[in-house]
Amino acid sequence: MSKQDLLTIDLNLTEVNRMLGGLAEAGRDTSPLMRKIAGTMAAMTALNFQDEGNPPWEPSLAAQKRSGQTLSASGHLRRSITEKYDAGHAMVGSNLEYAAIHQLGGAVKHKARDVILYRRVDKHGNLAAGFVKKRHASYVQKARVGAWTQVFVARPFLPVDANGNPQKGLEEKILTLATDFLREAANGHG
Fold it and tell me: What InterPro entries is this protein classified in (predicted)?
């Protein structure tokens, strides 16, 4: 076989090189992707509060008594949810002290302590049932409360479980966001 018999293929790879350049540039700054991922996780968290869990939470006793929503009495936990991101991380969470015990479940041990109970005396001189605020009290009583343990059932509001496993649908959403990010970068829109 002579040199003249060799088949030569000459490709113009300008477009491929341009796309690879766009991908390389996107790899240097993934913060736009991380912003979208953090936003997606925050949106899923908001839906978890609205739908009372995914999977559904066990209703709390407080919610059953007041015919309300679990983890939503005051709305503090729901409103405390923030999202953060940088070039390599997407985060969603709460800075409230009690957020973790609701997300993960667990037990809180309370020490024995002395308390002051404020009560009311009715017009007949009988001690009324229940307790009142100090300013409404007409009877004050000291009492000793023994040590006790309060158990919290896990009610994951963030889109991950106690083992760090993503909520159903989260991985697919992140994969779609990443694919779109790379496609846009390759096409010069990133």
Answer: Phage_virion_morphogenesis
